[in-house]
Write a structure and sequence with these properties.
Chain lengths: 280, 183
């Protein structure tokens, strides 16, 4: 009930703005973001805490699979990701991206602007727009704070906000933090709500289009994933933590239908992508 | 429209045997439309597994030709996959399922990850031969690697760098509203 009231308030706010601001300047999605932020501000963790939590969670993922030892590749993925994230509602986060050495096909995001993609998924990509599409999906999870909400559901708040502390050399503190990270990282084996995934798909393609990429590239990636035998070991975690790829495809195609055609002429930069991908 | 079909047919007949660069396969039952528009006339239905030639792409659509059953028209992009690929014939990801060039890129990257596997084994202690990293079990038992996080932070881009990168790649930022229905 409270939620409905809040939504109503936000909508009224938006209507108010529509009257006074030229239509072109309004981005409803961003306004809703802002509205949500203002309403929830007291109960929310600070940006600094968010970054701390995210960094520690990513350390957990990096403990399972380290970065691919290729500086050029890592910088390239950071350039693509940072550019896409700079078009989001949270351009000021310290956006950091990484390719991790795992043949599993997946990508993960953590609060505060951290995104990793596995080498297994990277190897399936054909061009920069597809990479941008995947990163944009993950960026959308961060922008919408999906992981914080998920943590909130499974762990007591005073527990998971302990994740915000920086790693120290003191062995006791370090052990406590390691235990905390270990519980937090379970999130990535469990996955987010299905609705969050659909939402990240829909927002991801818009973000890619805003960055000048062909937004349909994410559909192509999902098509590729959909054509791989779902029983392959490489897909186990992705399949267990996401809605069926077929359903993601049809919902995304339906959502995009006709609305983003104008942007389909966006770049896909296959040459630049292959230059980096093909020269280890 | 008829002229178009004849041109397409001629192209197909003139092309050397099938399996050219533009071949594709229907990955799920697809309705073929006369235009790249779901409001246009539906001219055929193609079963999953049908081989097609892909002529062009517009938005979320691909223009295709199918020999069996004989038809030309537009299908939704995600219903047709580029490259010759049989979903059932392959159980692992990545191998010959993509275009020639990207296949090469993938191969060379795989080779590089193979050669670096010794290094990752000593540094992280998590790598084993075969499918490495990030099974559900590995995520659940992961020990955080803070040094690796520091390394990752070191690769971060920045505003100026990203803008230069975008410009180099012909990327033009635009205002695109979120799709309604996206919460």
């Amino acid at each position: 009930m409270k939620r409905v009231f809040v939504k109503l308030l936000i909508r009224c706010g938006i209507l108010g703005l529509i009257v006074t601001v030229p239509a072109q300047a309004i981005d409803l999605g961003d306004l809703v973001d802002l509205g949500n932020k203002l309403v929830k501000i007291n109960s929310e963790v600070s940006v600094e805490e968010e970054i701390g939590i995210g960094g520690n969670l990513v350390s957990g993922l990096l403990g399972a699979a380290p970065l691919v030892d290729d500086d050029r590749l890592q910088r390239y993925v950071n350039d693509v990701g940072y550019w896409v994230a700079s078009r989001s509602a949270r351009p000021d986060l310290p956006w950091t991206f990484g390719v991790i050495d795992s043949q599993g096909i997946n990508a993960f995001a953590a609060p505060g602007g951290y995104v990793v993609i596995t080498l297994g998924l990277y190897n399936l990509l054909e061009n920069e727009a597809q990479l941008a599409g995947v990163l944009a999906h993950e960026i959308s999870h961060v922008v919408r704070k999906h992981h914080l909400e998920a943590l909130n559901k499974v762990l007591k708040r005073e527990f998971w906000t302990g994740l915000a502390v920086a790693a120290s050399d003191e062995s006791d503190n370090r052990r406590t933090l390691e235990t905390l990270v270990n519980s937090g990282v379970q999130l990535y084996a469990k996955g987010l709500d299905r609705d969050y995934e659909f939402e990240a798909d829909l927002r991801g393609v818009v973000l890619a289009a805003r960055a000048g990429y062909d937004p349909y590239a994410l559909l192509d990636v999902l098509t590729t994933i959909d054509s791989i035998n779902p029983d392959s070991a490489e897909l186990t975690v992705l399949i267990n933590t996401h809605p069926p790829t077929e359903e993601r495809l049809s919902r995304l195609a339906e959502g995009m239908d006709g609305r983003l055609d104008y942007y389909a002429s966006g770049q896909s930069n296959p040459k630049r992508f292959l230059e980096v991908a093909g020269t280890p | 429209m008829k002229f178009r079909s004849i041109t397409v047919l001629a192209l197909v007949l003139l092309s050397p045997v099938s399996a050219g660069d533009n071949s594709g396969i229907v990955v799920r039952e697809a309705r073929v439309y006369s235009e790249a528009d779901a409001g246009s006339a539906a001219v055929a239905r193609l079963a999953a597994g049908t081989r097609v030639e892909i002529f062009s792409r517009a938005g979320g659509w691909k223009e295709i030709y199918s020999e069996q059953p004989a038809t030309t028209g537009w299908v939704r992009s995600y219903q047709v996959r580029e490259g010759i690929y049989q979903p059932d014939a392959e159980s692992t990801a990545g191998s010959d399922s993509r275009g020639f060039l990207s296949g090469l890129a993938s191969l060379s990257r795989k080779a590089s990850s193979f050669f670096s596997s010794d290094r990752s084994r000593t540094s992280s202690g998590t790598a084993t031969i075969g499918v490495r990293g990030l099974s559900e079990e590995q995520i659940r038992t992961a020990k955080p690697d803070f040094a690796e996080l520091e390394k990752m932070d070191g690769f971060a881009s920045g505003n100026k760098r990203a803008r230069g990168f975008a410009q180099q790649g012909g990327l033009v930022a635009g205002k695109v509203p979120y799709i309604s229905g996206a919460k």
